[in-house]
Amino acid sequence: MEIWEMTALALGQSIRAGKISSEEAVKACLERAKQVETDVHAFVHLDGERAIQAARAADRGIREGRYDSPLAGVPVAVKDNLCTEGMPTTCCSRILEQFVPPYTAEAVKRLTDAGAVILGKTNMDEFAMGSTTETSCFGPTKNPWDVSRAPGGSSGGSCAAVAAGECAAALGSDTGGSIRQPASWCGVTGIKPTYGAVSRYGLIAYGSSLDQVGPIGRDTADCAALLGLLVGRDPKDATSAVPGAHQSMDSFLKYAPTSSETGEAGGEVAARGLRVGIPEAFLGEGTEPGVQAAIREAAERLKAMGATVEPCSLGLEEYVIPAYYVIASAEASSNLERFDGVKYGFRADQEESDLHGMYKRSRSQGFGPEVKRRILLGTFVLSAGYYDAYYLKALKVRALVRQAFDRVFERYDVLLAPAAPSTAVPLGESLADPLKMYLGDIDTVAVNLAGLPGLSLPWGLDGQGLPVGLQLMGNRFREDLVFRAAFACEAARGPWKEVWKREGGISDGKTV
Ligand code: GLN
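Above: inputs. Below: predicted complex with glutamine.
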């Protein structure tokens, strides 16, 4: 197996054992990126020299026994809305194109403190608004499974980079599905943690009450190990929580197969007695048959392995998209106020004599159409005459969604559903029809409204040979149960690469 194909944990183990150096691992990823980046375009900033220096430092640290983390020396990529000191952080927007932060996001810092090496910054929808990575001012990322298709979004760059072997793992952010949906479309694993589990310090805000940073990896164990490093209270983010009893790397990895030989048995143990609910509305009309089939097949296999699987209902599915878009846009309109042409570098090219003219021109030129649409929508729903009718009503729906989940989680450990109603769409399709794009978030936004954890892992391929993901939703701060269910699903599925080779994926050699 090539170095760039290895999981983060396997790579970390080889690095600790002295079989591979971090420098070699980083160079292997850079070499891989050289081969695929012209087609995939996952990165918007790739600093090979800096990464090699960091890898050498990590190798020194490992030799001197300074790291006890299983991911020391492992090359990772970071979504471009997470601040990195001295490295551009643009949110893939013209308005931040020249911004180089003077500080590093807490989530990124926790990875580098554990000895992980940052390769660079990945492409995303502008300010994380979008579902295909096509609203980026740097142009779209392509899905490594089929470069005529979108990787999903907004963390499309991070997911494509993992899928294509350009990094061992990556960080993304999820406001309404931006980790889970692209993970599903790219055939990788990603988890959006419970709101408050991971610090948002240094994550450039989109919808502050919804945003969470989370890991993306080649399998569940990698995500569990990464999340184990990320969780924790951070005094710099007042919404971050002290980790609960179930929130340690050990709890997350409890059901991980120790080796591929024991995978099946580990999965059986994980599945036995697990209570799985299937919210039937998630499988309704509008969900592609290939996606529905994957969920039903996974449910059957889990049942055969000793889980109880039952249909259930949240009962509010038709309201989650409008509530999400009202709240997310309202918060975005407020969060994006700070980009005014004075701070962060960008100023419209023409000198203006009056201040308001300068603001207007800078914002008109600096933001793309999707961001402008959200700012207008958000300002409208917060305006005096409409606040009660839209914003306040959306908050009430949000409270009801939270209660509905609370009720359902009295009976189930996890909910199993799709991460998206379709597999990867052709590039260009969703830009033409924003409303259709918004509706595509139907499977992911409820989790954000309720602040719950949600994970997506690859299950199989649809009729077109494109990856289909499963989504597992859990109760607040019960990522351990989500991981347990994910390990059970992985065991039921078998090794991902074998599955897609058997099912004849249309990967053109750009995937791991
Ligand atoms: N597609 C959703 C949106 O555009 C979710 C994006 C996200 O999670 N950042 O708002």
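The CA atoms of residues 27 and 314 lie 48 Å apart.
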